[in-house]
Please model this.
Amino acid sequence: MYLNKVFLIGNLTRDPELKALPSGIKVTSISMATNRVWKDQAGARQEATEYHNVVAFGRQAENLAQYARKGSSLFVEGRIQTRSWDGQDGKKNYRTEIIIDNFQFGPKAGGFGEGSNNGASAARPVSSGSGISDGEAPQKSAPADLDTIEYPDEEINLEDIPF
Model:
């Protein structure tokens, strides 16, 4: 059994570039940055950034080009593909890319939920790359739209849980 599956959550490092293949299929290429944070043996906080080349085709390419911008947060599900070509100097070139199968827009940079500790950004609806129809903009959410969860004050008895 083989599996080639990638999940990324990151930010766009540049605006999407929309192009068309000779067949007429739309193609968008984006660059995403993901961060990894860890503590080294001395306990000091370390951080590393990885950059990824990401490609979308068809309607997903059009949606990315229309709604995503540099700095946009994006969740991408896809597969890794490496392509090669001969350069003008005769040298073989390689490029590893992530081909998008599905994606979702994340919270807008600097918008509602950014930098707050109330967890509201996780409750904001996101639009699927394949679920936006023609003329439909991504949904916006305001603080008044959010339902708050009120937790009971009483203790939960583990004996009352049926499993």
Summary: The longest helix spans residues 58-67.
